[in-house]
Design brief:
The chain has 470 residues and is mainly beta. The protein contains three helices and 32 strands. Helix 2 runs antiparallel to helix 3. The protein is flat and about 100 Å long.
């Protein structure tokens, strides 16, 4: 039989079934009967969890009709090569590409190798070798992934630990290990420990520089949870916050605590909330929290609070007013010229026409957003921190501080073409000349360039300003 005379049907379960076209075409069917049962010539079970959604025939050099190899798209994340021949020597299904099915929610590079771990909304954790462009290993988890981190040697001397956060509030501690010789993959991911500190999605995770404390945050229950890594991730306690956690970073500021003979630095965490608020929270030391009744840490850990005040609308208003002032100045010069050359009557006629044109122009309004925009990223540097936000505040990086040098002052009156920074507003705006969101901010190793990960998938590198700021 020639292959164009066969019809292929795909079931959602990942089974490919083949029928013969001539048998279908020559079937003796009654006109009033809409159904004709017929067994397939053969069927191919591709694999467990496979969901084939489309197929196409492979193209060969000869491109003849005896080619039985087809490519199949797997909605679960893969491209399969299938042999749909009915012979006894047909080849087994072969997966030739494997990838996330849906959005990638987080990536974590290994600091000392050319590997990177990723976690997807499909619940898979994958490790890639980005030099050879190979997917080394895949592990499927029960719930969708939301964030991932690859700790350094301060946590695991072998650099084999992966920590994943999931949409159901579970944290999974996993280990990357060599697979058995007969396995299809070079590595395997082994689950070592799992615990559920949050009621919903884990939105952020960070580990301190000493590798002693893991901090997790959630947008669903608005909590910050602390774990002692050195004691097999024993819970230290949690802090209830005022709003949903979006992002976290370790603060550069620290304070001395303890007795004179036992002084130590107290770590602080910067927390960016979806309400545009930044909190600086003290990280509790393991063993100092009384968890006999509850793991909740009583109020007192909150050190600083910063509520972002949008200045984008003020800058846009000032720019608009400058253009309008320039236009008015040009109109006035033209009127003065007409009055001087053509007299009062021509002047009044031209002024009337200009006034009519100006009245037809729609007056633009510039206002602060009614609902604060969410904080997407915090980047601490010195005694300041830099924020990227969503919504109308996107497309820029804002320099902020908890210690505003300005005293409280009344809002100034009308100042056309300029704006005055008030207490609590960002110290400086780094304009990127785009309305795209910024999701990652990294200072490069040479300390002279800043790398930005943008919401449209691009990576931008900007020259760092002289001095202490970005």
């Amino acid at each position: 039989k020639q292959w164009y005379q066969r019809r292929v049907a795909i079931t959602a379960g990942g089974t490919v079934k083949i029928w013969d076209f001539e048998t279908i075409d020559g079937a003796d069917v009654l006109e009033e009967d809409a159904h004709f049962p017929m067994e397939p010539m053969s069927d191919i079970f591709v694999g467990d969890g496979v969901n084939i959604v489309s197929m196409c025939k492979t193209v060969t050099e000869s491109n003849n009709d005896t080619n039985s190899m087809w490519l199949a798209q797997d909605a679960s994340g893969g491209i399969w090569k299938l042999d749909i021949s009915v012979s006894l020597t047909k080849k087994a299904p072969e997966i030739i590409q494997s990838y996330h099915a849906g959005p990638i929610r987080g990536i974590a590079p290994c600091r000392y190798t050319h590997m990177v771990a990723s976690i997807g909304a499909d619940g898979t954790v994958r490790v890639f070798d980005y030099l050879t462009k190979r997917n080394l290993v895949t592990k499927k988890c029960k719930s969708g992934g939301s964030c991932i981190t690859w700790p350094g040697r301060n946590v695991d001397s072998k650099m084999a630990t992966l920590i994943g956060g999931f949409t159901d509030g579970v944290i999974r501690i996993m280990a990357l290990d060599h697979a058995e010789p007969e396995a299809h993959e070079d590595f395997k991911i082994v689950l070592q420990h799992a615990f559920k500190p949050h009621k919903g999605e884990v939105t952020a995770m960070i580990i301190d520089d000493e590798g002693q404390v893991l901090v997790t945050g959630s947008a669903d229950d608005c909590t910050l949870f602390f774990f002692d890594i050195t004691s097999n991730y024993m819970p230290i306690g949690f802090i209830q916050l005022e709003a949903e956690v979006n992002t976290m970073s370790w603060s550069n500021s620290s304070m001395i605590s303890g007795r004179a003979d036992d002084r130590h630095n107290v770590k602080r965490v910067l927390v960016g909330l979806r309400t545009g608020v930044v909190l600086e929270v003290e990280c509790p030391d393991p063993g100092t929290v009384d968890s006999s009744v509850t793991y909740e840490i009583q109020p007192g850990s909150l050190i600083n609070r910063y509520e972002f005040k949008s200045i984008r609308y003020k800058i846009e208003k000032a720019a608009h007013e400058k253009i309008k002032m320039k236009q008015e100045d040009e109109q006035q010069k033209r009127l003065d010229k007409i009055k001087e050359d053509q007299g009062e009557e021509a002047f009044l006629e031209e002024k009337k026409q200009i006034d009519e044109e100006n009245s037809k122009q729609e007056e633009m309004t510039f206002e602060a957003p009614a609902v604060p925009n969410e904080i997407l990223k915090i980047f601490p540097l010195g005694d300041k921190f830099y924020l990227s936000l969503g919504g109308s505040d996107a497309g820029a990086i804002y320099e902020c501080t908890f210690k505003d040098p300005l005293a409280d002052m009344p809002v100034p009156g009308s100042m056309r073409g300029q704006w005055v920074r008030l207490k609590g507003e960002p110290l400086r705006l780094l304009e990127l000349e785009t309305d795209t969101t910024v999701h990652e901010i990294t200072l490069m190793r040479d300390d002279s360039n800043v790398m930005l990960g943008m919401g449209d998938g691009t990576i931008r590198i900007h020259k760092k300003l002289e001095g202490d700021g970005l």
